[in-house]
Amino acid sequence: MSIEEAKAAIVEELLMYDDWLDRYEYIISLGKDLPGLTDDRKTEDRLIKGCQSRVWLDSRREGSRLFFDADSDALITRGIIAMLIRVYSGQEAAEIASDDFLFVKRTGLVDNLSPTRANGLASMISTIRGIAAEAAGEDGGR
Q1: Mean pLDDT by 10 residues, the chain (142 residues)
Q2: pTM for this entry
Q3: Containing domain of residue 117, as a range?
Q4: Which of 18, 58, 73, 133 is least enclosed, having the fewest CB within 10 Å?
Q5: Would residue 51 show up in a list of annotated catalytic residues for this protein?
Q6: CATH number at residue 26
């Protein structure tokens, strides 16, 4: 599935719910389904700075593609990172690095999070984008 297809699917799924409580429940369910990380992978270097809760993001490269795994100590945050992983894991690093991440705004999520959670979301996006930009640079931007 392409990044655009994955983003459209997430937006469509979230907008199926009229009530924000239902949307939060859906996001939490995404977090519950996230495999998470073993304790030995929950290291300081994988911790995303700027999040209210603790969020760990691990990445690996396979050729020009990036794969992400993550975990969090808060269910809503775990659901948010699960949503991002669903869209970006397995995609080309250059595509991730150049993506606008605006689908998150289209879901209405940014406007319905507390300021600290919204800052955490911005930190998650920044971290994913940074990992992708570094990997794309190493690949010569392929």
Answers
A1: 95 92 94 94 94 92 96 94 97 96 89 88 95 85 44
A2: 0.91
A3: 3-141
A4: 18
A5: yes
A6: 3.90.1010.10
